[in-house]
Structure formats: C-alpha cells, structure tokens
Amino acid sequence: MLPGDYLKQILDAPVSRTVLDNGLTVVFQQTQGPKVASAQLWVKTGSIHEGARLGCGLSHALEHMVFKRAGGRDAAEISRAMQSVGGLLNAYTTFDRTVYHADLPVEGLSTGLGILADLAFRPEFTQADWGLERSVILRELSMTQDDPDDRRGRLLMESVFRKHPYRHPVIGHLPLFESLTFEDLWQYHAQRYAPNNAILVLTGSLPLSAALKQIQRAFGKIRMGAITPAPVEEEPPQLSLRTGRVYDDVHLTRGGAAYAVPGLGHPHAPALAALASLAGVGMSSVLWQALRQKKGWVHDIEASLWSPGNRGLLGISYSCEAARRAKVETAIRELLENFSEKDIHEAALAKIVRTAQMGEINARRSASTLASRLGTAEVTIGDIGFSREYFKRLANLTPTDVLAAAQTHLTGRNLSLVSVEPRSAARATRAQKTSARGLPAFSQITLPNGVRLLLQPQTGYPKIHFKTASLGGSLFEANGLYGATALGATLLARDTRTRTAAEIATHAESLGIYFSEYAGTNSFGLAAECLPCDLDATVRLLGEALTESAFLPQTFALERKGQLDDLHGRDDEITEFGRYRLRADFFKEHPYAMENLGAPADLRGLTAEKVHAHMTRLLCAKNLVVAVSGDFHPAQLVKKLRPWLNRLPAKKFSLPRKAFAGPQPSSRTIKMPFEQALLMDAYPDCGVRGKNFMAFELLDEIVGGLSSRLYRRVREDNALAYFIGSERVLGLDTGMFVFFAGTAPEHISHVQSEISAEIARLRDGAFEEGELDRCKARLKAGRRMALQTPASRTGNASLNALYGQDPNDWQTYDARIEALTADQVASAARRSFCTKNRVALIVQPR
Predict the structure, then answer these.
(1) Would you tell me which of 376, 413, 545, 615 could form a disulfide with 488, CB atoms 3.0–4.6 Å apart?
(2) At what angle do helices 423-430 and 771-786 cross, to 10 degrees?
(3) What is the DSSP letter of 679?
C-alpha cells in the first residue's frame, strides 16, 4: 500500500455529527488503542469578532480569565480536579475561534467535560482576578515587542490587510488592551459565548452512545443564547505592490513576502500548497537552493501557505544581512513570478503529495491531534469531510495545474514585502548609491605643526562631515580633574572670543549645520556636518572652537551643573548604576575606574580656569586628527582649514604611562530601590590596540547578539531575564569584557549558572555548527552598513589614526574577521574568562 491508501483508510473512518437541542454541535470519532480521549470545545469567536473593541485582544483576555473561577471552583480547584483524573487542560485563541481542550483517560472524561462546560459557559471571575491577569497579559504583550520575528509577522498582516480584522494581532495592541474594562469582558462573554455558537469535538476510545450520554450530562442544560453578530469587513482586492519597513535594534534583517491567495475552499488550494512546498519547504526547495546554497545571500528562508477559510497568504520569511535585503526581495520575485513547467517536475510534485499525505497521517496519530483536524474542518471550512476531497485533488495535481495557479496568483499586484531591519539600514535607504568603484580610501596630510588631516572625497551625496579627535579622558586626569575632559569638550562647542554660545547655535541652526562635541574613555573631539554650500561657515565654526574657545564662567557653571545632574541620574537606572560601580570595582586605583563624566567631588572643585588649562595641554597639534568625508575638493578644503589649524602649538605630546596590572577577583551585592535585579560579570579585555581585539570583537557578537545561544536559552526558552548579553569597556591597551543580565531576584542563581555555562562553552571552543560563520557575517554586515554614512567613516578613521592604527582598516576588516579561527577565539576566552580574573556585581532590590 502507498501513503495515499493508508490516508484514505484514515479519512474514511466514520465521523458522527450531532446537534443538541441547545444548538451545540458535537463532532465525534471513536479511536482504537489506549483508553484515552480528547475533548475540544471550539467557541466560534476570536479576535476578528470583537466588534467595537476590535484590536483590544478581548477574546484572548477572556480566555485567560475563565480559568480564574468557573462552576464554583477557583483556579487551584480546577487544576486539582483535572489532575485527579490524570487530565491536561489548556486553551488558545486565534483569529476566528477560542478553543478549550482537555486530554485525559476515558474514565475521567465526565470530569473533563464538566470543567470545559464550566469554563466556557459558567465562569465566575472577579474584578480582583482581572487586575491580576491584566498584569500578566501586559507582560505578554511586552514580550511580543522584543521578538523581531513576531514584529515581522505583525507588519506583514498590517501590510496585506487594510480593512479585514486580520490586520490586528490576536493578543491586541497595547494601548487598546489597556482600555479594556472588567465590564467589557462580561459583555463580550454574554454576546458571543453560547452552545449554539460552539462546536464540541470529542475523540477517544469509547462508543458514540457513551460519549453522547456524558456530553448531554455536561452541556445539555446550558441554555441557547442570542448571539450578537460581529460583522467582518471584507478586504478589497489588492491592486499593487505594498511595502512596509521597520528599523529597530536588531543585527539581522528579518524579511517577509506574502502573495494574497484564496483560502482552503478554493479549487486552487491544493496547487497553492504544492507551490509553497516547491518554493521554500526543505533544503531542496527553489528558494533555499538559489538564495542559501548557491548565492549565500540569506541565513535561512522558508515558504508556507496560510489559508484560514476564504482567504490566505503564500508567505516567505527569511533573514539576511541588511545590505542584501533588496537583492533577496528581487530574487524572490524573479523566482516565484517566473515559474515554468520545467521548475515543476513530476518527481518533485510526487514528493510533495507524499509528504503532505504523511503529514496528515501524523496529524491524526493521537486523539488530541485528530480532534484538532476535525475541528479545523468543521469550524474553518464548514465541512467535516473536507479532507477527503482535498487530498483527492492534491493527489491528482499535474504540473500544468500548479503552473496555472502560480501564473494566476503569484503576481506583483498582490504582493506585500516587509522587513524588520537594523537602525543603520534606515540611513542606507536615504543615502545615495556610491560609485561603481566603491569608497575611496582616506588620504593623509600632516601639517608642519603635526596636525593630521584625513580626507575622503565622495561625490553623489551632498553632505560633508568633519570629525576631530584628540587623546583625553581619565588617563590624563589626575586626582581632582576627573570629568574635566568631558566638560572641556562641551565648552569647546559653546562660547568663543567673538560669539556667544547662543549666537553660534542660532547661526548653525539657521543653516542646518550639525555641530556638537563628544567625549569618551580615551578621546574627545568635535563633529560638524553641512551642505557643500555652507563649507566656509562650518570651517569657521570648527576653527573658532579649536583656537578661540572662551570658557566663560557663566557657561562653565551651567554646563558643570548639567554634568553633575547626569552623574546623579545614574543612580536612577539600574544598568547605568551597575556599570559605573562595576567599573570602579574592576579597575580600582587605575584611572579607567572613573568614567568620562568624572566624580562629583572633582567636578565641584573645578573652575573654568582649571578646565581651560587642562584642555590647552590636550589640544595641541600633535594630539589632533581631523577627518573629513563627503562632497568636497581636497585642495580647496585644505586651503580653508590650514589657517585655523596652523594656530595650534607644535609642542610635544606624550601618553601617560599608567599600566593596568589586571583586576583583583571580587564579588559583591548591592541593594538598591529597584524592582529588578542586575547581574554583571567582568573579565579583562585587550583594549583597542590589543592583538586580540578582533577575537574579543567576535566573542562579543557570539554572546551579545539577539540570536546568540545565551540569549535563546535565558531569554527565549526559559524567560529568565528581561535582557541579557555582553558589552566592552575599552581602554587603549586594556579593557573590561562584561556579561550582564537583568532578571527577577528569584532567578539570579539560575541566570548566573547559565552565564557560567556559556563562559565554560566559550573557553572549551564548543561552538555550534555555523555559529562562528553567522557571527562573522553579522560583524561584516554591521561594518559595511556603518560605512554608508560619512559620520561613521570619519569617526572610525580619526580614532584609528589617533590610536596609531590604520585609518583605512575598514578595507581589511572582512579578511581579518574571516581569518579568525575557533582556536584563536577559544584561546582568548581561556586567557581572559577565568576565575582569577572575575569581578562580579549583583544589584538587588532592597
């Protein structure tokens, strides 16, 4: 016998359909084997039926609430009653139904049916119950915002459905859910929950007569109800391509494509299912072979058919580097909209039919899965024998049938393309395309006094970006001066000898010139960006800031207060609080123990004169790099900059010799008035000039990425932490590599054990298959995306030159990342991530 023959036997098994006097439809099929049963109550109401409260998640909220109290039992008693007969009880809500299901031994069926009847038709939940469960659902809503795959799905539904309620997520929109009231729940229950709006599907090892007797006992006395109609607005035909983009804090682009197609009842439904399989189910599929195996453009790609009723979607989901998204979308269209008979081989079609038959057989292997199939046929299609006809049509498909369906339904006019992309990709979509030659390298000019100019002329995008960089920060701040570099950098961009800070701001803003300062662990500087027509004004802004800053007492007092306020504000946010406390524990007496904002006591003791003197020592020609990228002529630009830069003194400048011997192992707990807990484990890093910099770069990606193993285990699989990952604090020749997690206090030890296990895995080099390749791909993509903006290019080049490295290191970045071996990465982890180097901090609620 063939799979189709076995399936026919299964589908031909008798199924009874009975309607009780109160309107409850009962679908029953007797099974053979163990004495078990599955009872599923399908209430024909879901998120598309919420009427005036559409988009609130009312159906889902009510499903949660009925488990609180029903039929004279509270939640604990309901659970105990099911446990006493060995049953499992649960529920789910989707667009068109809410299903309450119980799997249990046949001898406990009477108890299970009674509980299902109580849950659906005799709930007794209270206002207090709603207050508690509302908080649970709010957390569930928040979790959906953290999942880029979930955001992609929502975006796709919003793009495809402009009128139909499918455009709303089943769980609801957060602002609309927050408007739900206790009265809304009861009103909705009264309008939509009645036996004449429900289907009871029962499968199990018992005869029909015994089943009906128990069903009548549990449900027979429940009265028929007047069901309030819930009109579902029809979706007008799609007439053209639709797109939707979201830019978020993700590393990889998650893309989706969906063709609007008919639902399961349409004659083309089997051919569309075959098309979905041909396109993207399995590693032999068209999309996987073309875009994953041959081109390597995607990390994963798959297709599926979603067809709940009279409409559906043939959807494709994939992930890729952001720079490849447009190419992937084009390729998907070319592959699917140009199907020909040569793409639909008889053998491939036979495999699809056999796989579908096997899947259907597997879907009916237990009482529970069988009940689900029967419920889908009755509720979604309205025909309990639908599967027999569907698989008959599927088995008779020809390549011509499949091709006709493709040519009819896979067209650009009914296609929607969406993506959730890294924030950097938003800038890429606005940027002009670079020339065919790609980016030119930065050329370097050293002025007679020692100022280094890095120039990267790039036409095609009418902007010019300037970045100055000078060594500074805590390494150069003796006791009493901590915070002086950050404050001094701020004052550079304020008053000059000829203009006040307000006049400078007004002038820059009137021209649309971006002008600001920055200060970090090792450096400080100024940044400016302008249109080419405003080049003269921008050069003057920078020149005055570098050579004519006034350090006025009143501006000094104002900016010092702002920096002190920022310092005090660190204690208000748990991660900021933990960062500066951990840094102090790790570096102890070394200047890097102090972050760039400094210490409150030092700031209060500073004067405008002290800060001016400090900045005069730092701001000399041999400690200044000026990088420029954009639409300019190099000779003309140098001619404009030279008069200002020549004013800087050509004095000697040297780096303080303050070596860090390494951390002393320690562990401590601090109690603060926070709701959550924070774990931080720190180990030595090599710093920006260290030979293992790239290995630590890869380790950071392995641990800190949203698709990392640690994130999956702690955040996604076990919901133990609100956030988890890694970060680096980088000095010039040393640094701190931090594992961190935000969690509930009761999960601290569990999360700590997961971090310890991850560290052991890194030390052992036990990387998952393809893990290093995926992380390398994300790093290379991130660097490439950053190169799109002149601001990022000048920042990278200026700091590299300042630290004695190649300003054009971006040209070799991919090769250096690719050259890293698993042994090198594990070796870096072994040397750093060991107990003798560990500095741990836990912040707990009081």
Answers:
(1) 615
(2) 40
(3) E
